[in-house]
Structure formats: C-alpha cells, structure tokens
Specification:
By secondary structure, the protein is mostly loops. Helix content is 11%, strand content 3%.
C-alpha cells in the first residue's frame, strides 16, 4: 500500500477511536468529575485530595440504580479533604487515605474504614457509631468529643491518638496498638483491648470498669484515680504504671505484672 494511502487509513482509525472516546458515558470517562458534581456516589481509588466537601450529603441519593445509593470511596486519596458536617452514613472508605482529612461534626455512623490511613485525621465531635476502623494505621488521630458507640479498632495501629471527652462504649479493639494515647477522664464502658498495647498512655481518671485488658501492655501508663472495677487484667503488663488512687476492686489480676508500679495505696510494687 502506498505511504499516502496508509496515512489516510491511520487517520480514519484515529478519528474513529476519538469519536468512541468522546461518546463514552461520562461516568466511565471521568468518575471523579461525576462525584465532585454530585451526580454519582461512586469514586473508588479516585484522587480527591484537598477538596472541600463540607456539608455534602454522601449517605445516599435519589439515583436510578439502587446499587449506587451508597457512597463508595474505597481506596480513594482523601488526604486533606474537608468533610465538615458532611453526611457519610454507611459510606465505604476501606483502604482510603484519610490523612489530615477533617471530619469535624460529620456523620460516619455505620461506615467502614478498614485498613484506612488515619494519620492526623480529625474526627472532632463526629458521629462514629458502629464504624469499623479495623486494621487502620497512622498516628496522631483526633477523636476528641466524638460519639464512639460500638466502634471497631481491631488490630489497628494508631499510636498517639486523642480520645479526650469522647463518648466511648463497646470499643472493640483487640490487638490494637494505641500506645502513647490520651484517654484522660474518658468513660470507656465495655472496652475490649485484649492483647493490645496502650503503654505510655494517659488513662488518668478513666472509667475502665469491666474492661477486657487480658494480655495487654499497659506499661508506663498513668492510671491515677482510674476505675478498673471488675476489669480482666489477666497476664497484662502494668509495670511502672501509676495506679495511685485507682480502684482495682474485683479486678482479675492473675499473672498481672506490677513491677515498679505505684500502687493505689501509694506503695511501690517490687
């Protein structure tokens, strides 16, 4: 075939491909634009970093396809995004990068954020009831004043997390690493952190009644005036902790290590 004929034929092929791309459904062509415009709740693995999504209702929408009625941002880059007062109830955020994202006053009840990056993520006053953060990672996460009823943190690695004045009940965090975190004065009803690590944390005046802390590393933590009534401390490491004024009534202490701890009666445990 002559060179000119070949060039003409290639031109036709290119034109056909271009028309096919232009004719592609917008949702397939650019899921990000569809999501940002509010026409879709599906944006898996999208780069939405730095956007302001304050006040957005992402808990559902009147869409023709019922399967698209739940927000799915799994694997998305949401770093630095503002979700101030956004509604993300039942949203899927599994594997998402939520570092430095701001969820102040947002509603994430029943959402899933397993294996998410929560580095410096802010959940100040957020509704987090029944959220699954299992296997999440990061540090410096802020849960101050958040509602955390039935939250899951199983095997999460979130050192230096802030829980001050959070409303916590039924926190299920077996195997979690929350070392160096602040729980000062927090009432943690039915806490389960068996086999976890909260060493070096501030647990002063915290309510840990009937908590499951079996096999947990608590070494070096401050538990001054904390309530551990009926808690399971079996085989836990409480060495070098400050327990001055703490209440250990009916606590299970079989195998618990208290070496170097300042005990409730102000005596030092050898």
């Amino acid at each position: 075939m002559p060179a000119t004929g070949l060039l003409h034929r290639m031109g036709y092929v290119f034109a056909a491909l271009l028309l096919a791309v232009l004719a592609a459904p917008p949702a397939l062509a650019d899921a990000r634009d569809e999501f940002v415009a509010g026409r879709s709740l599906q944006c898996r693995a999208c780069d939405l970093s730095g956007l302001d999504l304050s006040g957005r209702k992402l808990a559902g929408a009147e869409l023709s396809d019922a399967n698209l009625s739940t927000t799915d941002l799994s694997g998305a880059d949401l770093s630095g995004v503002s979700f101030f007062r956004a509604d993300l109830e039942h949203a899927r955020l599994d594997g998402a990068n939520l570092s430095s994202a701001d969820f102040t006053d947002a509603n994430l009840s029943f959402a899933t954020a397993t294996k998410a990056d929560l580095t410096a993520t802010i959940f100040f006053r957020a509704r987090l009831n029944n959220v699954d953060f299992s296997n999440a990672t990061g540090q410096g996460t802020v849960f101050r004043r958040a509602n955390m009823i039935g939250v899951k943190l199983a095997n999460a690695v979130l050192p230096f997390t802030q829980f001050e004045k959070a409303r916590v009940a039924g926190l299920d965090a077996p195997g979690a690493d929350l070392r160096g975190s602040t729980f000062r004065g927090v009432k943690m009803q039915r806490l389960n952190i068996a086999g976890g690590h909260i060493g070096g944390s501030d647990l002063s005046s915290a309510n840990l009644e009937k908590a499951n802390m079996a096999g947990t590393i608590v070494a070096g933590s401050d538990l001054m005036r904390a309530s551990l009534i009926g808690a399971d401390l079996t085989d836990a490491d409480f060495s070098k902790t400050r327990l001055l004024g703490a209440n250990l009534r009916d606590a299970k202490t079989t195998g618990t290590r208290f070496s170097g701890a300042l005990m409730p009666d102000a005596s030092w445990h050898e």
